[in-house]
Amino acid sequence: MSYLVSILYIVAFGMFIYGLMGLTGPKTAVRGNYIAAVGMLIAVVAVLIDIRDSSNWILIVAGLVVGVVLGVPPALRTKMTAMPQLVALFNGVGGGTVALIAWAEFLNSKGFTEVDSVPSAPFIVGSLFAAIIGSVSFWGSLVAFAKLQELLNKNFEKKVVAAAKAFQLANMILAVVSIGIAIYIGINANPTHEPTSALWIGGLLVSAGIMGLFVVLPIGGADMPVVISLLNALTGLSAAAAGLALNNQAMIVAGMIVGASGSILTNLMAKAMNRSIPAIIFGSFGGGDDSGAAGMSASGGAVKATSAADAAIQMAYANQVIVVPGYGLAVAQAQHAVKEMASLLEERGVEVKYAIHPVAGRMPGHMNVLLAEADVEYDAMKEMDDINGEFGRTDVTVVIGANDVTNPAARLDSSSPIYGMPILNVDQSRSVIVLKRSMSSGYAGIDNPLFTAAQTSMLFGDAKKMVGEVTEELKAL
């Protein structure tokens, strides 16, 4: 029976790896998800086969049913605009599960003193590491969810960001406390010692949990995509540690895959923002949008408003139009309207491309998923490095709800907090049309001089509605 379980585990994590390979391209991403899901099903079957106690088997099946009931409805009903929040929440649940596993193993082994009569170093170290990292990931992910869902009061967020240094000091103290408790538990994990009180593992989970809260609370909204990726990596590492403690090959491999891929993605996104990961964790910027009056930039510069009719004329007689999607497009659910507008332009012989910044939206690949939902061709979606050279020969660039990733201050103003961050060189286009509800700043809370540039016109209003009006004007030409 053990051979069958081992074979099933090998098949399962083989499918995890193959499924992850599918996620490297939009055309194979859905298939990759299905393959990985089947791999997880096989891993669950292997666990059920390996369990000989029928009462445990019943508990696991009951847990699966509860998980399906709680997990499937949000996954089906959540709009694409709220997908980052859902990812953060699901990721947090994974970290919390690992922390609970560590707690249960501590209680089951009476303070790690009854692990086959002799404490196993991998079991003890893996469990304690999983307890700390899993708890940090769970509570940190809940804060990320609350920030993305805008459940936190804006004034409270600003006060927290302003007190970032105090939080950093608190986190250092909490880290020392957590590590100290873990060392104490490890030293006493010996059959010759009295079992360590359960209060110690509870204290470890609490201190690590508060640290998770304090780490993410001061981080500004502009850094949230990187934070989600980092928390995802931490959850993977904690799962791998729990797998090491439980001697579960599937958990070890799956956790390491998630941890490694999440770490690589976090590093790539940090580079895309020209910021180090420590700078994001300890010195982030951006506390959310501040409303501004239409027709006036945050710095007081004048802007030029345009109409749907004028915008349609500009685009209709262009050779090339580049669409730059941002979170505003997601909020307005304007992707289908944009696709319809682009189709009309293409019928008139206008080449339409989409410029995707690595950190546009609220999570990695957010804009790609939105556009793919509207059946935009994958080949038309261009990454920043591939499209930046084309703005100089583009007649019209249409910016829809993108602020910080198009801000030329990152290239021109050395005093700007985002100076050095790679951006889409929208300001090099012959003409720029920006769709926004108002002159509010982006999620980083920084003014964008693009909006007052000579070649820029502002089309104010709901993105979906305004794109629809432009489309109707195109039909009338």
UniProtKB/TrEMBL annotation:
Keywords per UniProt: Cell inner membrane, Cell membrane, Membrane, NAD, NADP, Translocase, Transmembrane, Transmembrane helix
Catalytic reactions on record: NAD(+) + NADPH + H(+)(in) = NADH + NADP(+) + H(+)(out)
Record has Translocase as a keyword: yes
Major localization class: membrane
E.C. designation(s): 7.1.1.1
Domain NADP transhydrogenase beta-like: residue ranges: 6-472
Membrane topology: Multi-pass membrane protein
Domain of life: Bacteria
Transmembrane segments: 6-25, 32-51, 57-76, 83-103, 123-145, 166-187, 199-219, 226-246, 252-270
Enzyme kind, highest EC tier: translocase
Any one Gene Ontology cellular component term annotated for this protein: plasma membrane
Pfam families per UniProt: PNTB (PF02233)
Subcellular location: Cell inner membrane
SUPFAM superfamilies reported in the protein's UniProt record: DHS-like NAD/FAD-binding domain
GO MF annotation, one: NADP binding
Role according to the record: The transhydrogenation between NADH and NADP is coupled to respiration and ATP hydrolysis and functions as a proton pump across the membrane.
Annotated family: Belongs to the PNT beta subunit family.
PANTHER family, per the entry: NAD(P) TRANSHYDROGENASE SUBUNIT BETA (PTHR44758)
Official protein name in the record: NAD(P) transhydrogenase subunit beta
Organism: Speluncibacter jeojiensis
